[in-house]
Amino acid sequence: MRMPRLGLGTWHMGEGPRHREAEAGALRLGLDLGMLLVDTAEMYGDGGAEEVVAQAIRGRRDEVFLVSKFYPHHASRRKLHAACDASLARLQVERLDCYLYHWRGSVPLAETVGALGELVDAGKIASWGVSNFDVSDLEELVAIPGGERVAANQVLYNLARRGIEFDLLPWCAARSIDVMAYSPLDEGALLHHPALESAAARLGVSAAQLALAWVLRDPNVAAIPKAARPEHVRANRAAADLVLDAATLATLDRAFPPPRRKTALAMI
Ligand SMILES: NC(=O)c1ccc[n+]([C@@H]2O[C@H](COP(=O)([O-])OP(=O)(O)OC[C@H]3O[C@@H](n4cnc5c(N)ncnc54)[C@H](OP(=O)(O)O)[C@@H]3O)[C@@H](O)[C@H]2O)c1
Questions:
Q1: Per residue in 55-114, pLDDT tens?
Q2: Cα–Cα dist 49/177, whole Å
Q3: pLDDT band per the 50, 70, 90 thresholds, residue 49
């Protein structure tokens, strides 16, 4: 993969001034522990999350693989340059490592691909990708001149949302498109599932750690858990070192069956 496989999500960060220092501290801790992929978006906290990231990466920009995302209503040639400039200004950096189309909107894909190419040529982004694109969207994208440069697809993936294993994951792996798993803990909703809790207890880890290690078992997937609490950041970093045995994987397959047919891409 082009990017580090374990990162830091930032949704719900930067939503109010009260928590910003603690949020930036959690991100800095993650970087200290080697979680060097940072995922943010102009949408999060209405730009506030990008400002928190700026605070966290000050003085260490070069360590970080920095990803931000633009709104579908900024996907036109006219608006994308301004959206990118605004993200760079909030992040206080000169370049993004990857810039993602947050979800598909009504602007023709060819126009967005053209504008993204201009941002690469201008040195404002090193690469670009998409988010919440299903296989049919990706097929359309790669058929457009320049569309084959898509570097990543960020999608919902966790034990409770396994649909992409049927087609999207192999499709991306075959084309060396990095898959970024968002909400790897299902926004916390997974964590009290009895089968997950008992499998985790048998291994002496938390349910969150087992859920995260499970996402990371696939070498073509990066995970970007969001954690504002330092103890969660530490636990998530440790989860990346877990190697799951066949019995644990089989137990999880019984509790969270893999897909047997195509389902539409789930998204939040
Ligand atoms: N492209 C998209 O459309 C899209 C959509 C959704 C999310 N995302 C990205 O993916 C990131 C992650 O997804 P998410 O924020 O939706 O959900 P998530 O990472 O699945 O879950 C976050 C929740 O889990 C808690 N948590 C984290 N680590 C934990 C641990 N070790 N033990 C117990 N609880 C733990 C967090 O608590 P604390 O914060 O209190 O520590 C938070 O409440 C987002 O932040 C965002 O960057 C992208």
A1: 999 999 999 999 999 999 999 999 999 999 999 999 999 999 999 999 999 999 999 999
A2: 26
A3: very high
Give the Cα separation of 199 and 19 in Å (integer): 34
In this structure, the residue with its CA closest to atom 26 of ligand 1 is 227
Does any ligand 1 atom lie closer than 6 A to the CB of residue 197? no
Residue 184, ligand 1, Cβ within 6 A: yes
Query: pTM score, two decimals?
Result: 0.98
Provide the residue type at 246 as one letter.
A
CA of 268 to the centre of ligand 1 (A): 12
CB of 11 closer than 6 A to ligand 1? yes
